[in-house]
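pinging the channel bc i need a second pair of eyes. not urgent but kinda urgent?? the chain im working w is below, pasted from the shared doc
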Amino acid sequence: MNFGESFLTSDRFASELGIVHEESGAGHATLSLRISPKHLNAHGTVHGGVIFTLADCAFAIACNTDDVPSVAINTSISYMRPVSGGILIAKAFEFSKTKTLGTYSVVVLDGDERKIAQFQGMAYRIQPDTR
C-alpha cells in the first residue's frame, strides 16, 4: 500500500464520502469520487463541500509524498460548473516547493474532462527540530 492509499484508508471522512485513490507519486496525486445522492445539495447538484474535500485530499496526498510532513496553511477554490451525476476526478500537482513551503494546484474534472473546479493550496513543510 503506498502513501496515497494509506492516507485515504486512515481518513475516515474521505472514506465515508467514497473518495478513491487512483494514483500518486512525487508531488502529484489523482483521486476520484462516484457521485451518489448523498453528495447532492438542495439544488440537486454536488455540494461544494464535497468538491472541496475531494480537491483537499488530492492536495494533502501530493504535498506529503516525500518524507517531510506537510499541513495546509492556505487554500482556495473556484467552482466553474455544477455537476449532478457521474464521476469526479481530482488531479493535484506540485507548482513549487522550498524547504518550508509547497504550493499545489488541483483541477477537478467530470467524467467528460470538463473543469468543475480549480483549487490552490499552500502547505507548510514541518522541519525536524534541530535544537
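so The first strand starts at residue 20 and ends at 25. and The chain has three helices and six strands. — does that match what u expected or am i reading it wrong
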